[in-house]
């Protein structure tokens, strides 16, 4: 916590003044919450499966997430759109959102986050195909540095049938 006090001083304020006195403790608690994804294996959420005969696209879109840029410790946030075409098993819809949160609540870059979600679905559910699209705003771009507040970053991870069949990829994208 002394490091946080030193940071407050370095920025030009007094860590002992009334509004900042307990800030180091609050910052520590906040960072433990921001990074709670390290204390779980997000893939485990997907292990609850059901035998349902469904061979078409399952898409959970607009899954809100909040993450921390590993380069600046600045927040980035947005939505994840996660879809897969089942082969033999499906998982609960909330499990997909929990998986997104588990990977997002780590120090991240958006590209890795996108891949980790898709690879977890591939590994655990073994679907015919998986596609993840993430759209996010990065405070390291919007609130500092280049200061482009309207800039959004979109990343994709495409596996299986979505790689080879443009009609399946188009179906996913049209539903967004």
From TrEMBL:
Stretches assigned to the GTP cyclohydrolase I domain: 3-175
GO molecular function ontology, one term from the record: GTP cyclohydrolase I activity
Pfam families documented for this protein: GTP_cyclohydroI
Residues that hold Zn(2+) according to the record: 69, 72, 140
Superkingdom: Bacteria
Organism: Fodinisporobacter ferrooxydans
Quaternary assembly: Homopolymer.
Family: Belongs to the GTP cyclohydrolase I family.
Uppermost EC category: hydrolase
Gene3D superfamilies documented for this protein: 1.10.286.10, 3.30.1130.10
Keywords: GTP-binding, Hydrolase, Metal-binding, Nucleotide-binding, One-carbon metabolism, Zinc
Catalytic reaction annotation: GTP + H2O = 7,8-dihydroneopterin 3'-triphosphate + formate + H(+)
Entry EC number(s): 3.5.4.16
UniProt pathway annotation: Cofactor biosynthesis; 7,8-dihydroneopterin triphosphate biosynthesis; 7,8-dihydroneopterin triphosphate from GTP: step 1/1
Name of protein: GTP cyclohydrolase 1
SUPFAM superfamilies registered for this protein in UniProt: Tetrahydrobiopterin biosynthesis enzymes-like (SSF55620)
